[in-house]
Write a structure and sequence with these properties.
With about 500 residues, this protein is α/β, with parallel strands linked by helices. It has 16 helices and 21 strands. Strand 13 and strand 14 form a beta hairpin. It is globular and about 65 Å long.
Length: about 500
């Protein structure tokens, strides 16, 4: 039997390949960053040709690190930044434009136009999402309307669309030479174009946005064999799992039951609550598909998407120069005992859940002559925890039973100051698993299930174990007083862009 499952984790800032063994432990990893392109304020793009080159490189690198060959890999899973949209020529494989990244806000005027008199929620009952610059659909429309000749080519069936999972799958399975043009239900649920009930493309959404159905990939389950790898070091291996990054983390955290939740801390942060087979509505949060494993029933989630968390630490490092490495933010924050009354709202591209304000922009408030670098660093970290608290409050408002604990993952969970503060402001335990690469692990789990590498969800639960648990220590009166100050700071970010 093959000894590994490979997971391609195509993220916002880098692409990785991780090999997992039968116990769900990391055997090898290779990671390569790609360029962040900012043509204008609020615009964020990726060169998907570069992304595909990095994907091939990490395949080679991880196999080399494990001294492994294709035959040692039972299956390949894919997880990805979800709402980042790519449109390319079916015959040549050339993109017609750089990918428009999920953080990009160029479609703000288009979104208002699409909302019309019916408002931003006009499609929400069927697709689970409000009209927003966040999701893929308006990005497709923008490309068709702004790239010369793109709309005509799309209507002639010459162009294909996909989120990054589809782009990677298509290239991985042959590209112009027979590549599989498909996506899974989790990624499709982030386009604003899929009916949550039928799991099919929603014609009224396509008509509203002027998107030809011929562009769209086939919607399939999250765990099945889509095709075989062609033309890389993994040639001949089945691609058997696809999950959008946050749903992959939920699956990798083994949050299979209704009411279980996780929060992933990366460039942004994402809190997902499993609602089982029920589609649950919440005005402040969005509803998506959690997973569909083969022929099993579809499960759903409530999600709170926070645009900027880890990216704020990167901003401190790269734009402000307050720290030299991301890890230094914890050391700097520990030079002070509290935030000194300083609050930082990182609305660099507006606010996502629970506000959905495209007009918001970042603010630092509460500054006095007493404030110094440590207070700024602490405020940046605390912003992550407060934003998560707001999302959890929204989920608890519609959940039958308030969450008893929160599983966490992602790079920022290494910051123990942040994790303790997170437990403090939530008032519930925060739990970090031994394998924190749960996004890649979830994609590996989905792929492994499809080929029998793992047998069932009980088998997967045995591979999850706790590394660290933080219990809340903050007095409730202080917690609520500081939370009120945070919410006041958030209001100062509103109505900045007219």
């Amino acid at each position: 039997m093959s000894g590994y499952v490979a997971a391609i984790d195509q993220g916002t800032t880098s692409t990785r390949l991780i090999l997992f063994d039968a116990d769900g432990r990391i055997a090898a990893v290779d990671q390569r960053e790609h360029e962040q392109i900012h043509p204008r304020a609020g615009w964020v793009e990726h060169d998907v040709g570069e992304v595909w080159r990095r994907t091939r490189e990490v395949i080679d690198g991880a196999l080399r690190a494990a001294d492994a060959q294709a035959g040692d890999v039972a299956a390949v899973g894919i997880t990805n930044q979800r709402e980042t949209a790519v449109v390319w020529d079916r015959e040549t494989g050339e993109p017609v434009h750089n990918a428009i990244v999920w953080q990009d806000t160029r479609t703000d005027a288009l979104v208002r136009e699409l909302a019309g008199d019916q408002g931003l929620d006009r499609l929400r009952d069927r697709v689970g999402l409000p009209l927003s610059t966040y999701f893929s659909g308006p990005k497709i429309t923008w490309i068709l309307d702004n790239v010369p000749g793109a709309r005509e080519r799309a209507e002639n069936g010459e162009l294909a669309f996909g989120n990054m999972d589809t782009w990677v799958l298509w290239n991985l399975t042959g590209g112009p030479r027979g590549g599989v043009h498909a996506t899974d239900v989790t990624n499709a649920s982030r386009t604003m174009l899929m009916d949550l009930r039928t799991l099919e493309w929603h014609d009224p959404s396509l008509s509203l946005m002027g998107i030809p159905p011929s562009m769209l990939p086939q919607i399939r389950s999250s765990s099945e064999i889509y095709g075989e790898v062609a033309g890389t070091a993994l040639a001949g291996r089945p691609v058997a799992g696809i999950l959008g990054d946050q749903q992959a983390a939920l699956f990798g955290q083994t949050c299979f039951e209704r009411g279980e939740a996780k929060s992933t801390y990366g460039t942004g942060s994402f809190l997902l609550v499993n609602t089982g087979e029920e589609i649950v509505r919440c005005e402040q949060l969005i509803t998506s598909v959690a997973a569909k494993i083969g022929d099993a029933p579809t499960t759903y989630v409530l999600e709170g998407s926070i645009a900027v968390t880890g990216a704020a630490v990167q901003w401190l490092r790269d734009q402000i120069g307050l720290i030299r490495t991301a890890a230094e933010v914890e050391q700097l924050a520990e030079t002070v005992k509290d935030n000194g009354g300083v609050y930082f709202v990182p609305a660099f591209s507006g606010l996502f859940a629970p506000y959905w304000r495209d007009d918001a922009r970042g603010v630092i408030v509460g500054l006095t002559a007493y404030a110094r670098a440590g207070h700024i660093a602490r405020a940046v970290l605390e912003a992550t925890a407060w934003q998560t608290r707001e999302v959890l409050d929204a989920a608890n408002s519609v959940a039958e039973i308030p969450l008893a604990e929160l599983k966490v993952d992602g790079g920022m969970t290494a910051n123990e100051l942040l994790m303790q503060f997170q437990a403090d402001v939530l008032g519930i335990p925060v739990i970090r698993p031994k394998v924190t690469e749960t996004t890649a692990l979830g994609a590996a789990f989905a792929a492994g299930l499809a080929v029998g590498f793992w047998q069932d969800e009980a088998d997967l639960r045995e591979r999850w174990s706790q590394d660290r648990r933080w219990e809340p220590q903050m007095e409730e009166r202080r917690r609520e007083r500081e939370y009120a100050q945070w919410k006041k700071a958030v209001t100062r970010s509103f109505d900045w862009v007219g």
